[in-house]
Amino acid sequence: MGQLEGKTAVVTGGGTGIGLATAVRLADEGAYVFITGRREAELDAAVETIGPERVTAVAGDISNMDDLDRLYDAVRTRGQGLDVVFANAATASLVKLGEITEADYDHIFGINVRGTLFTVQKALPLLNKGASVILNASTAADNGMELFSLYAASKAAVRSFARTWANTLKDRDIRVNAISPGPIDTPGITALFGEDNAADARVHLATTAAIGRMGRPEEVAAAVAFLASADSSFMLGANLYVDGGENQV
Asked: Which of 233, 110, 240 is nearest to 182 (CA)?
């Protein structure tokens, strides 16, 4: 028996990286998982990885309200409510102050802030008593990296959501917490820095963690599974750093 036996979970951005690793871990703990993401090929591969009997994939963009409605309609149809929401989907770009466009702002905040807000708000009618909501923030919200001003600000907003929503939902016995991953080795590194620069970026990012290496998506997934389970029952509005000491020592 896993710690989430009989539970139902939603993982946004579940086709790759941290989202996929978390969906696998939650399913291994006994949860039935709904995953969503923008790329159907990645979702199809994720279903095979997780096991078709343990997961439903719903393609969509969390910044699109119709896509979120389709996701939660699928959860509703299953008829068992919702016990875990991991609001993980996000995007990032490298752009410095003085060169930021309105399109840059709308893209980052549209997905990371607006998308996270409505991912959780639209889940509210389905959340069972004792449910756990986990928001994916970032160490970038704290460390002031020059080219990440939009991304960092969006993740600071996500961290703030965890505090206010924890207060809002506590009377329903629903816990809201955040995680803040540090340098994690995912395919997003290549997408962000480009094929030619990804290897150098990984070498540099490894030096930012006191532990001396980048983290694995499975290590973040373990932290999410902890926050989803009863083992974290006295945690509310917290921000759990999974950063190899990047912002700690």
From this structure: 240
Which CATH number is associated with domain 8-187+217-242? 3.40.50.720
Summarize pLDDT for 142-190 with one digit per residue, the tens: 998 889 999 999 999 999 999 999 999 999 999 999 999 999 999 999 9
Do residues 112 and 90 touch, judged by C-beta distance below 8 A?
yes
Beta strands in the chain (DSSP E): 8-12, 32-37, 55-59, 82-87, 127-136, 175-181, 239-242
Q: 213 pLDDT exceeds 80?
A: yes
Q: Is the dihedral of CA 25, 26, 29, 31 positive or negative?
A: negative
Contact criterion met (CB below 8 Å) for 137 and 208? no
pLDDT digit string, tens, across residues 3-44: 999 999 999 999 999 999 999 999 999 999 999 999 999 999
Q: Which residues contact 129 (CB under 8 A, 6 or more apart)?
A: 172, 173, 174
Q: pTM above the 0.85 mark?
A: yes
- Is 151 a residue of the active site? yes
Half-sphere exposure of 229 (CA within 13 A, CB side): 19
Catalytically annotated residue among 32, 72, 105, 151: 151
Find the DSSP H helices in 170-239.
187-193, 198-208, 217-228
98: which 2 tokens?
């003085």
